[in-house]
Amino acid sequence: MIGGVLLVGVVGAVMATGGALAIAGAQTAADAQSSLVEDFSYPGADVVWEQRNIRVIRGDGRLVMTTCGSPGLIEVRRSNATLDKDVAWRGHYCFKATGPSGRLEVEIPDTFQFNGLAERRVDVVAKVDDKIENKSGVKDIWTGIGVADDQEGKGPAILLEIKVS
Which of 8, 84, 86, 156 has CA atoms 20 to 30 A from the CA of 48? Predict the structure, then answer.
């Protein structure tokens, strides 16, 4: 009977050890796994910064930066875009709405005007002279921001957000 007790003891020890290893392994894998919580960061933001010298920060995925030159785009213009590597569209940025609404946080310094969409409302938020300004725009009408606004004496604008509804 001593052999039977020994066998049961070894099987119990192996099961206990194997169980402990499985639990420890599961905890290690769970600890190493990244979070699945969406932070809405803009994919490729580093490339946009390197190529165009503007920050595309985060959004809901329904407003994306695209190449200018097609109809139906939201257009933004800025001055002092000497570091912008896109020679053809230097200082001119375009965004496409992929749904009925959309939101995108950006940082585009020295913005002076934008052009909206015909079928939807486009609102922008900009910082001008340390004050937050909200503007609405429509297609085929360039709307001034900061120095290009109808009011004299305004400084340069930093475009902070574009919203489509």
Answer: 156
